[in-house]
Amino acid sequence: MKIRPAVAPPAAEDTGPARPPAEPPSDDRPSDDRPSDGRPSDGRRRWRPNPEWTLAILGSLLLAVVLTWPTMRHPATTIPGDLGDPTLQAWQVAWSGHALLSDPANLWNSNTFYPERYTYAYSDTLLGYAPFGMLGSGFEAAVIRYNVLYVLLHALAFLGAYALARQLGANRWGGAVAGIAWAYAPWRLAHSGHLNILSSGGIALALAMLARGHGWSLRHGYRPERRRPGWAVAGWLVAAWQVTLGFGIGLPLVYFLLAAVLVAAGCYGWSWWRKRERPPFGRRLLVADLAGGAVFGTVTLLLGLVYLRVVDLNPQAVRSLDWTKMFSPPLIGFVTAPGDSWLWGERHAAAREQLSWPPEMALLPGMTLIGLAAAGLFVSAFPVRHRVALGLGVAGTVLLGLGVTLGGDGDPGYLTLSNLLPGWDALRTPGRMMHWTSLLLAVLAAGMVTALAESWRRPAAARVSRAAAALVLLVPLALVTLEGVNRTPHPTVPTPPAAMRTAPEPMLVLPAGGVGDLNYMLWSTDGFPRITNGLGGFEPVTQAQTRVAVATFPDAGSVAYLRGIGVRSVVAVPSRAAGTPWEGIENRPVDGLGITREDVDGTLVYRL
After folding, report:
1. Smallest Cα–Cα separation from 245: which of 345, 157, 358?
2. Which of 45, 59, 492, 583 maximizes the CB count within 10 A of its CB?
3. Where is this region: Disordered (predicted)?
């Protein structure tokens, strides 16, 4: 029999108690568990890639490409979801990059909705993706950029949830299950056309960084020796970036972090009073929190002021609570998958018929995830009190997600927050609280999987081979992956007519109104000419007036109106005009109107 030499126990870490000296290092040892501080003998610190996180990043990218397929099959010509909101959001990313490079002072005054102002803030802006908007130019670049972002945001969601689960005390198996279950939850497939809703990876990543910076985990609580002020600053900056992607998802994060700060301060004060001594915190960490929190608060405030300005200019932009009531899901929605789910879509068709608005009410986080999280309430690597807290968090977010369905009026509940918290009334879709519900479920599931994995290392299970244990642990991993498989449509994006590149601006594109305006916004990425068209979270008064005034174009009245608001040309696409007031526009005479008409490859250009 071979005698294995004793080895020194690993340093304290977030995934479990120290092992006996005779136990070999585990594959589940966290990335910061090293026998030394990483400095060579000469005392200088040298950077070395961390195998776990290198693999996690590469794995997240590969998984994203596979589970969003066929997004990257034809990234220059197709787009996931539909031809509505994705084309708007492709324009948004392109505009922010273009504006910041060419004319930052007019970032908020976009080239659409002419002659209105602050038009870039007519919906969630995705401003945080502006650096991507600086890469390339034109229509094709905008489509490719959107598809790449669509894949990357899924990778970031996985990586953020993985990092959070690991920081809170899960091992690598638990982190992987949490990452896939959250990033590819079935309910997300209902939002394949909403880049702003899918872009939530920064939430989990910010929480992971903040927890790491403060030396805190679910498994071990607060450990002052693990404080890292730099990670705390990074967490605040990521949270600020998340807010720049839109208040629809960012505002709940703002209030969560505010509540977390107040609770943490209260617990700190209570511990100080009870023990008659100040708990260790540190000046550097306090400075990091103050600086990072100031950046976070400033970004939130500045963006909020922009949206308030939009409301001042457009009072009709205020959304009443009737919107919240309309989008409040029934309880069955939380176990109903959207139609784009490969595994559950057809099986849940009958349940979706009971939902008045399935895109916002089919909220299944995953059957496997629900089962693992339920088991995690009883068997987990996390302490009982923290499991209870996570369970209460799940229940609370579900009740909020019900909106007015809870108790018949949502008060107390979601409408209470709408009445008390500034800006909350603009969050018209309670079901989007599923971001938080599914994240809490993922953490519970990670604790359960971690406990299962660690049970194989106990003496009673010594006869079980590592290969057999890995096969058992692959089951939950495979199941959550299977539930994330999509059948999302990828329609071909209509290309802009060549006439738009030569027509004088400002211009009007006909037929106007509806989803077509979203396509025109994307078309305008070729040079960003000013256009009167646009579609956002509300309709400005001038746009409705313009649509009515030009219903009979070309005639004397419509020409005079367009000249009056400064429009210099009209681009009409007869092939898109069927069923609109402009059907047959190519047969309408222009004699005596003082304008010219030119046919450019089937598109009509009227110069006023």
Report:
1. 157
2. 59
3. 1-47
